[in-house]
Structure formats: structure tokens, C-alpha cells
Amino acid sequence: MDYSTNDSKSTSKKKVVAVVGGGLVGNLNACYFAKRGFQVEVFESREDIRQAKIVKGRSINLVLSHRGRQALKHVGMEDTIISKGIPMHSRMIHALNGTQSPIPYGKKGQYILSIDRANLNKELLSAAETYPNINLNFAHKLLNWSTETGAMTFHLFVEEIQADLIVGCDGAFSAIRKQFLRQSRFNYSQTYIPHGYLEITMPPINGEFAMKPDYLHIWPRNTFMMIALPNLDKTFNCTLFMPFEEFEKVTTGDKVIEFFQKYFPDAIPLIGAEALKRDFFRLPAQAMVSVKCSSYHFGDKCVLMGDAAHAMVPFYGQGMNAGFEDCLVLNEIMDQLNEDFSAVLPEYTRVRVPDGQAIADLAMYNYVEMREHVNSKWFLFRKYVDNF
Ligand code: FAD
């Protein structure tokens, strides 16, 4: 199917943009392009998550901060999303002896928001659906695309699809990016860190939050760390970050309790010993990868955004926020350069690569700092705390 206008200078007929990946950044991006009047085709490998009983994804909740909010605001979504978020004005530090000390994020009144990832994705899909010029194509897993013709091929679909612009929003393991790797002078690196993470739910107690809800709770413990973010259903989502080799030592329910007794004793009665044992083994610990690449574009045909361009370790809570900001930045360049993709895409690379790489570096730098200063307790404490 040829959606393209076959005319790179065409202004009479609106061009067709194919957004590959209908995740957080892809759906927001679709709204941006649709708002400009483009015909937008979103191709998402999963089924519609609004119909799914179980939504697989990375963290259950996310921190939304200023740069992400600015990007949502531009398409009129900021208020809807923040109304379903929980403001966190401070971190709450849990010492080993159970004492808790708050450290504010900024001045009085400043806060970041705890947001449910699945709900955010659903809201973005529903927002995209309100534009008559957006088509959502679920169960469309991109297999490949041709840098010569721009034709895209999808799993289980024989027909090739063409568009005027391909926007790769298909995440850290982007299939769109694979074609970039074959191009001369395309730089690429990916780094897995030795830490993994797993998530544990802290249920409500007597229908109320088990801890104070307007905080991002942090348990800094040398090379380990646990954080907890509140959810609207009065649960907390706890994320334990720890080297894989340490996860491998915790092999039984009894060892889980022993480990928590040693490092996070105050969390055991709040989570519940049985729930703790169950959640710890629900999924294997997940890996974290950092991706850096340059350029972000290929000719006037394709551009990478979000994690496809700059996946980062989560120690700054900025991956999604930076991906949302990508949409805002590209949009500004579209204004400046009259939507001429042959000028817009190189300019986007010029402006955005240094920022994308800087934020990925900062996230990694803080992770490395944490590891290298394990013997300096005060330094480590500050590092853990400052990152979140
Ligand atoms: P993704 O969310 O990965 O979406 C990619 C989409 O593309 C998916 O829907 C996928 O199904 C689809 N797809 C993949 N391959 C194909 C294909 N071949 N064809 C079609 N579709 C495809 N960021 C923050 O800002 N704040 C936080 O607090 C935060 N916490 C985090 C905690 C953890 C533990 C982790 C791991 C990450 C965290 N992040 C956070 C980062 C954030 O999750 C990512 O930056 C964000 O999800 C990137 O969005 P994306 O749309 O670019 O990619």
C-alpha cells in the first residue's frame, strides 16, 4: 500500500507520516503530526492495550517532570494527565534503623508526579484516536524497511507500506534503527549495566496508603537501592535495583525475607512477608540498557525519537520525559523550516543529538558514581538521593 504523496515538495496534498511504535513517545508524536494536518499512520506491534487484561511493560509507574509536562501541554493533555498523577514534593529517605527524613525536590510548591505507565499509554492512545487524520494499526510489528524505497514490511502482512516520513518510536531495541546501522558514519553504542531491577507491590493498609503518599520513598543501601512511588489505588510500586549477581544469591522465599530483614526491615510489615516472597519471584530481574547513536535521521525519509534514539538507565527518571521533549523540539523545527523534511531532519539531529547524549551520559554518570563511591557512605547517600 502506498500512502506516500510521491512528491517531496507537495504542499497541495498533506504528506503521510508513519509512526512506528505506538508507545508513550509514538502516540504523543502522532498527536503532534496530526495537529499539523499530516495524515498519520501509527504501527504498533502489540494489540490495543486498552482491550488487554494484562499489559506488559517496564516500570508500573513513572516520574513525570517539567520537560514531559511541557510537551503534553502543547497538545492539550497536561491537565488530563496530571489529574491522574500523585504529586511528590520530597524524597523520603528510609535509614536502616527505620528513621525517615524528607528532602524537598525544590522550592515550596514544586513537585514531580507519579504516573501510572499503562494509564498514560491508554490516555495517549485515546487522545490520538480523537484526530480524524490518525489511524492506529495494532498488531503491526515492523520487520524491516528499505532505505532505498522507504517501503516497510510487517510481520504477517504481505503488502509493503510506504509513507512520506517514517518516525521510529519503537523503543530501545528499535527495528527501524537496524537499517541505520548499515549506513556509513552512523555511530552507535549500547551498554548494559550490571544492575537489574524488579518490582514489588506494597498494598494499602486498612484502605489507606501504607506510607505517606506525597513522597518518593528511597532506601539507599550502598550498591542496592529500593524506591517506592504511590499509585491512585493507594498501593505503592517498589522497585529494587541491585547487581544481577546479588539477585542470583536470593533463591528462596526464606532468603528473600532474610535479605529484607538485613537491608529493608521497615518494608517487610508494609509489604507483607507472603506478598514479598511472591512478588520477588514473579518475574526475573530486568536488565537496563543505555543506547547512544548519531545521526537521528536518514535523509528526508526517517527519524528516530524517544528510546529508539536515546534509551537511558533510569537513575534520572528522564527517559520518557526526554522522549516527550523530542516531540516538542521537532515541532519547533517544523515551524522554523516550513515542514520541509529535507531541512528539518538534519536540523533535528544537529540540535537534539547533543542533548539526547548528554542526558543519557548524566544518567549513566550518576550510576557509575554510585558504584565507585561505595565506601563513602555520605557521598553515596547524597548521590542516591540527588538522582531521584
Ligand atoms: P517504549 O515505551 O519502549 O515504546 C515502544 C513501542 O514500540 C512499544 O509500544 C512497542 O510495543 C512498540 N514496538 C517495538 N518494536 C516494534 C516494532 N518492530 N514494530 C512496531 N512496534 C514496535 N522515564 C521517565 O521519564 N521517568 C521515569 O520515572 C522512568 N522510570 C523508568 C523506570 C524503569 C525501571 C525503566 C526501565 C525505565 C524508566 N523510564 C522512565 C524510561 C521510560 O520507560 C522510557 O524512556 C519510555 O518508555 C520510552 O518511550 P518510547 O515510546 O520511546 O519507547
From TrEMBL:
CC annotations in GO: mitochondrial outer membrane
Keyword Iron-sulfur included in the entry's annotation: no
Reaction equation(s) it catalyzes: L-kynurenine + NADPH + O2 + H(+) = 3-hydroxy-L-kynurenine + NADP(+) + H2O
Pathway note: Cofactor biosynthesis; NAD(+) biosynthesis; quinolinate from L-kynurenine: step 1/3
Molecular function in Gene Ontology: FAD binding; kynurenine 3-monooxygenase activity
Keyword Repeat: no
Compartment annotation: Mitochondrion outer membrane
EC number: 1.14.13.9
GO process annotations (BP): 'de novo' NAD+ biosynthetic process from L-tryptophan; anthranilate metabolic process; kynurenine metabolic process; L-tryptophan catabolic process; quinolinate biosynthetic process
Annotated keywords: FAD, Flavoprotein, Membrane, Mitochondrion, Mitochondrion outer membrane, Monooxygenase, NADP, Oxidoreductase, Pyridine nucleotide biosynthesis, Transmembrane, Transmembrane helix
Major localization class: mitochondrion
Names of required cofactors: FAD
Enzyme class name: oxidoreductase
Annotated ranges, domain FAD-binding: 17-361
Domain of life of the source: Eukaryota
Membrane topology type: Multi-pass membrane protein
Family: Belongs to the aromatic-ring hydroxylase family. KMO subfamily.
Cited function: Catalyzes the hydroxylation of L-kynurenine (L-Kyn) to form 3-hydroxy-L-kynurenine (L-3OHKyn). Required for synthesis of quinolinic acid, a neurotoxic NMDA receptor antagonist and potential endogenous inhibitor of NMDA receptor signaling in axonal targeting, synaptogenesis and apoptosis during brain development. Quinolinic acid may also affect NMDA receptor signaling in pancreatic beta cells, osteoblasts, myocardial cells, and the gastrointestinal tract.
Protein name per UniProt: Kynurenine 3-monooxygenase
Gene that encodes the chain: KMO
